[in-house]
Amino acid sequence: MVVGFNARPVVCLAKQLGFKVMAIDYWGDLDIEGCADFLYTVLQQDIDKEYSDFDKPCSELLVGLAEKAVEQHGKPDFILVGSGLDDRPELWSRLNRIAPVLGNTPEKLRVIRDPLRLSEVARELEIKFPETEKAASKSEAVKIAEKIGFPVVIKPTRGSGGFRIKFGRTPKEVSENFERVAAASGEAYIQEYIEGVDASVSVLGDGRNCVVVSVNEQLIGKRELGAQTPFGYCGNIVPLEADVRLIDCIKDIFSELGRKLGLVGSNGFDFILTKKGEIYLMEVNPRFQATIECIKYVTGLNLVKAHIDACEGRLPERIPPPRGYAVKMIVFAKERGVVPDLRGLDCVFDISHPGVEVEKGSPICTVQTFSEDRAEAIRLATEKVLEIHRLMHG
Fold first, then answer.
1. Phi, psi at 337, each rounded to 5°
2. Which has the closest alpha carbon to 290: 216, 376, 221, 380?
3. How far apart are CA 231 and CA 326, in angstroms?
4. How far apart are CA 166 and CA 163, in angstroms?
């Protein structure tokens, strides 16, 4: 069983290994249907129906569908977790009652997803971490922001993908955005803003040792892709283009951090690389990352197999060196509109059903390209994005 906000990449890589796969997915895109033997989706992408809100958070809906799937088809041998459940260890515990979740324990999530506890571990290893405090009111948020120094970043206590993160450049903006970010829980993190290149590291751990698979550039808040928020995740370029000595330094830092945290299976670290070459840890993603298909393009490594092996105590002796560059770009609707028929377009994945009406900022599909030349891989992806936006918006 694969459970995730966008389960398709993990489902398809698992299917390539010969598994019979039960998919629990949010979107229900066209191309997951051909990979999953049993498919349960939160959204029903029907023509003439708009996407709508639900009475429960997405994470709870996914786990509810997983429990329903087991009632109808029996228990799976094990469960693989994707995005959408990072901050809900109690839901991981519910999944563990269905079948073993391969990877980190719910208890581990409580440590690695808490910025305050993570910053303590980072400090022990002399890894930079942005100054962060939790606020429970508007006035407290403003007071913390004034102490840290403007601008600050206001982060929800639960969430992923960066779409609910807000800037706080003035006391008034901090106060207003705190209300928006903290609406669900009444609390939010106020964090020092670090400017630089958004990047990530993919690692494999067995609980004792940790190896770096890939160092990646992240695409965040890209308006040309249709993103409507400055911190929204929009894709990756794999690998990160940087001096080999810097890459080696990054690998040393995050392999040591992975060992210190006792990570199990496929995990990711998000970090910022400043103009001065400083490395700031931002967060840990305790499950498969959105880069897994790009890594397959670049190294040939199937991270689903590598994850299963790592959970059984087997780490790869050698990570294949990158043989080129893979680019992933998530395409968002620039205006409210109807999804065109994107079937048949090459390099296009996570394909929304044609005829479905979507709001401005909703994801339409994902573009993924590969080339031995970085500029060429970016050009191919950019041209495909422009083509999709033309089809969508004219």
1. -175, -175
2. 216
3. 22
4. 8
d(CA 144, CA 166) in angstroms, rounded, equals: 15
3-state secondary structure at position 109: helix
Which two structure tokens, joined as six digits, stand for 311? Answer: 């959970």
CATH code for 197-393? Answer: 3.30.470.20
- Encode pLDDT of 319-369 as tens digits: 999 999 999 999 999 999 999 999 999 999 999 999 999 999 999 999 999
Taking only the tens place, the pLDDT of each residue in 207-261 is 999 999 999 999 999 999 999 999 999 999 999 999 999 999 999 999 999 999 9
Provide the 10 A C-beta neighbour count for residue 257. 23
- Among candidate residues 22, 148, 36, 34, the one with its CA nearest the CA of residue 80: 22
The domain locations on the chain are 2-101, 131-192, 197-393
Q: Which long-range contacts (CB under 8 A, 24 or more apart) does 180-183 make?
A: 181/154, 181/155, 181/156, 182/135, 182/156, 182/157
Contact 212, 201 (CB under 8 A): yes
**CATH number 3.40.50.280 is the correct assignment for the domain at 131-192:** no
| Residue 381: CB atoms within 10 Å | 26
Q: Supply the pLDDT for residue 53.
A: 47
Alpha carbons 230 and 193: distance in angstroms, whole number: 13
Q: Using CA of residue 117, residue 123, residue 128, residue 131, what is the dihedral sign?
A: positive
Distance of CA 148 to the CA centre of its chain: 27
CA dihedral 226, 232, 238, 244 (to 10 degrees): 130
